[in-house]
Structures are given as C-alpha cells and as structure tokens.
C-alpha cells in the first residue's frame, strides 16, 4: 500500500510542482536570453534582475478574466486545454532524473513507447481548441499545427527505432544503463539520430524555427487566439512542459541521462562526487538553453518548406539510419 | 509487472485534478464582466460574416492519411528493434523486406505528388 500508492504520490507531487516551477523559470530564462541576444535587458522591474517575474506572471494569469466566446463550443473549449496539459505532465512519470530509485516515479518496460504515445495525445488538445473556438484564425492554426505535429512525429518515431536498436530496450532506465555498459553516450554512435530527434523535437513543441502554428504575423495568436486567463495559461504550461520533456528525452537517449562523460574511463572517476541528478539537470538545462538560442537565431520556416523538410528529407534519412544501424549491428 | 503502471494511473489522476483545480481557482478569483463585443470571435474588430468552420485545403486530409499508414508501420518496427539481438540475420532480412515495401509506398506517394504542399 505504502510502496504502491503513497510513495509514488509523494514523488508525483514533488515532480508536478517541480515541473510547474521549472516552466515559470524557463519562461523567464527565455525572455532574458532572447533579450540579451537582442542587446536588451529583458524583465528588470520585479526583484533583482527580474527574477521574481517568474512568480508574478502565473499570479497575473490566474487573476485574468477567462472568456468563453459566445460562438464557442463550451465544453470542448474547456476540454481542449486539459487535453493538452495532462499528457505533457504525465510523460514525466517515466523520465529518470537520477540513477537512484528516488529520482523516477516508475520504470515501465515500454517507457519510450509510452512517451511517444502520450505526447501524441497533445495533438487532440490543439485540434479541439481550434475547432471549439469557432473562429477563423484558431481553426486554420490548429489544422496547420496538427499537420505539422503528425508529420514530424513519423520522422521522430522512425529515428527512435534506430536508438532502440542500439540500446536493445524500451525502458528509459534500461537505455541509460545500456550506455553505461557500452561505456559511451549514444550520441557518439547515433549522431544522425540525435540531430533528427532535435529537429523533430523543435517541430513537435512548436518552437522556432518551426513555430508556424503561432505565426503571429499571419494567424494572430495561433490555435489559442480565443483563449484567455487560466485556460490560455494551461496551453502555455503544456507547451513549455513539452519543451522540458524533449530536453529530458534527448538527454536520456543520447547524452547518457544521469551518467558522467565517458562512464567507463577510470581516469575521469574523480567526477563521481557530482550526484547523478546534477548531471541530468545540467544537461537538460543545456538543451533548454539551446532551444532558446535557436529561437533567438533562426528565422521562421515557410509552411511548404516545413512540410518538405519533414516528409522529403527527415523521413528518408530516418529510414536510412534504421537500415545502417541494423546492418552494422548484425555485422558486429 | 502491471504494478509499474499504478503510478502512471495516479499521475493521470493528479494531472487531471490539477487542471480542474486550476480552472476552479481561476473561476473563483478572476473577474467576469459581461460585454457583447468581448465575446465575439476575434476577427480584427470586424463582425464575422460567416461560420468559421468553412472548407479548407484537402492537403491536410492527405497528410493525415499518410500519417496513419506510416505511423502504424513504424509501430511494427518497435518490437523488432527490441529483440534484434536474438533475431540476428533472419530478423534483419525480414525487416529489410518490410522496409522495402514501405519505401515502395513512400516513393509512390512522392511520385503522385502527395508530399508536395503547393
């Protein structure tokens, strides 16, 4: 009873709180980094260097009026943000933040498949939001967003097959342990897969340069144009939580999860005093920074270019990568 | 075995609960002032003439169909990838045949212009 219900519940409570706090600070980090990239200061008013902005923003969002447009489909309009937020949070159940049992909620033997399956539920939230709003811009944006998400999902899922081939397991913890046994991070054997997952991850989270669904110059606010207040912030939360998920997944699959660099080289064992979760969060932070950096650097893709990249470039490379990985694995 | 999924179920409950609590809290503290203009669909200040659920490009439909086909085929590769070590050469050849058929379909879709956007 205690082991199956109470302890997981405590972990979940800590984790959900952690994700929510991490999201608010990621938003602050994004504003700050982009501001610095553009020679601005970013938020400076609330607290030293604007740090308290991360606390003030959610309070503001809670206090804002939550409008349901007269033409909208009331229940669907409320269901959509829930459908976006819940999968984005639930995925964290299988992410191992450290080597100890304390640092993950559960270890299911199809962890990676679970992540793929649950993250794709988020598409329903987006398409439902566009449909329920009964307004032109959200509908167009949600169609675009869902077409983009499903296109890149194929490329990412196919790429993951080659990673599974290398690891020989679907369990997130098993994948990290496979890297420990192999003695190197999978980035060094699957660099192509890493780049594909990174590009696909940017597209899956609607991040720049693939932020077509929110292309504000043409579609006002994207699929959540009609949303305000709490329901808007739930979409916002889901989007940034997905960003955290992608960083965590990339870290687990390619950058050794909680392992130190070159886990088998004894000369580096002096690094062992650093706890495993510090490695994990350090790498995750690095990827969050990379996502923001990319947003500050690259211009937005055009929609037909985006589709061409997904269908005509990423998918052939992903299939080729599977074949090469499988052949190499049989030969060795 | 199935016990590993209990925390997942708990997590779903907690996440749904959190979402509902957030909505309730916001409904309690947020203001609600009626205004006819505010409740209209956003269309740059112009009154919407027609229903928003209009016709849209058929390409989205083609993409969705292709997605269903390719995604299902990808799912077939997952179990194979996990037990590749045991299947060895036999599994490799089987999967190459499978991938060859998949690529045939892909080339067909490409030739037919299903992947062109404009």
UniProtKB/TrEMBL annotation, chain B:
Q: What would be an example GO MF term here?
A: oxidoreductase activity, acting on NAD(P)H
- Transmembrane spans: 6-30, 60-81, 87-109
How the protein sits in the membrane? Multi-pass membrane protein
Q: Where is the signal peptide?
A: none
Q: Which UniProt keywords apply?
A: Membrane, Transmembrane, Transmembrane helix, Transport
Q: Which InterPro entries does this chain map to?
A: NAD(P)H_OxRDtase_bac/plastid (IPR023043), NADH_UbQ/plastoQ_OxRdtase_su3 (IPR000440), NDAH_ubi_oxred_su3_sf (IPR038430)
- Subcellular location(s) of the protein: Membrane
Q: In terms of one coarse class, where is the protein primarily found?
A: membrane
Please give the Pfam families that the UniProt record associates with this protein.
Answer: Oxidored_q4 (PF00507)
GO cellular component term of the entry, any:
NADH dehydrogenase complex
The entry assigns this protein to a family as follows:
Belongs to the complex I subunit 3 family.
This protein is called what? NADH:ubiquinone oxidoreductase subunit 3 (Chain A)
Q: Which organism is it from?
A: marine metagenome
């Amino acid at each position: 009873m205690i082991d199956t219900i109470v302890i997981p519940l405590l972990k979940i409570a800590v984790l959900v709180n952690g994700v929510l706090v991490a999201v608010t600070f990621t938003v602050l980090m994004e504003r700050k980094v982009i501001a610095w990239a553009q020679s601005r200061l970013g938020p400076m008013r609330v607290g030293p260097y604007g740090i308290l902005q991360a606390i003030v923003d959610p309070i503001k969002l809670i206090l804002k009026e939550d409008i349901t447009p007269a033409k909208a489909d009331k229940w669907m309009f409320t269901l959509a943000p829930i459908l976006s937020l819940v999968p984005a949070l639930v995925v964290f159940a299988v992410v191992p933040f450290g080597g100890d049992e304390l640092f993950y909620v559960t270890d299911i033997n199809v962890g990676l498949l679970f992540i793929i399956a649950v993250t794709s539920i988020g598409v329903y939230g987006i398409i439902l939001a566009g449909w329920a709003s009964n307004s032109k811009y959200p509908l167009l944006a949600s169609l675009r967003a869902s077409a983009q998400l499903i296109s890149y999902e194929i490329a990412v899922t196919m790429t993951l097959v080659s990673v599974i081939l290398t690891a020989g397991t679907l369990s997130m913890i098993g994948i990290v342990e496979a890297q420990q046994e192999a003695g190197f991070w999978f980035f060094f054997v699957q660099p192509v897969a890493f780049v594909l997952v990174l590009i696909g991850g940017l597209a899956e989270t609607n991040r720049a340069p693939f932020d077509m669904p929110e292309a504000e110059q043409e579609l006002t606010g994207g699929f959540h144009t009609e949303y305000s207040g709490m329901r808007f912030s739930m979409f916002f939360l889901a989007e940034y939580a997905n960003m955290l998920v992608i960083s965590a997944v990339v870290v687990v699959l390619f950058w050794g999860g909680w392992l130190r660099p070159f886990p088998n080289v004894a000369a580096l064992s002096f690094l062992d005093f650093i706890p495993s979760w510090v490695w994990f969060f350090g790498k995750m932070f690095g990827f969050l920074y990379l996502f923001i950096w990319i947003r500050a650097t690259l211009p937005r893709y055009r929609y037909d270019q985006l589709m061409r990249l997904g269908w005509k470039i990423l998918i052939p490379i992903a299939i080729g990568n599977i074949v090469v990985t499988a052949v190499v694995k049989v030969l060795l | 075995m199935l016990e590993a999924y209990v925390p997942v179920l708990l997590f779903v409950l907690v996440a749904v609960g959190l979402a509902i609590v957030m909505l309730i809290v916001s409904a309690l503290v947020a203001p609600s002032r009626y205004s006819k203009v505010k409740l209209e669909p956003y269309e740059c200040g112009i009154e919407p003439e027609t229903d928003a659920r209009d016709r849209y490009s058929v390409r989205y439909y083609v993409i969705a169909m292709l997605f269903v086909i390719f995604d299902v085929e990808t799912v077939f590769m997952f179990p194979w990838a996990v037990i590749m070590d045991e299947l060895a050469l036999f599994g490799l050849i089987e999967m190459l045949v499978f991938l060859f058929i998949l690529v045939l379909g892909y080339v067909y879709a490409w030739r037919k212009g299903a992947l062109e956007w404009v």
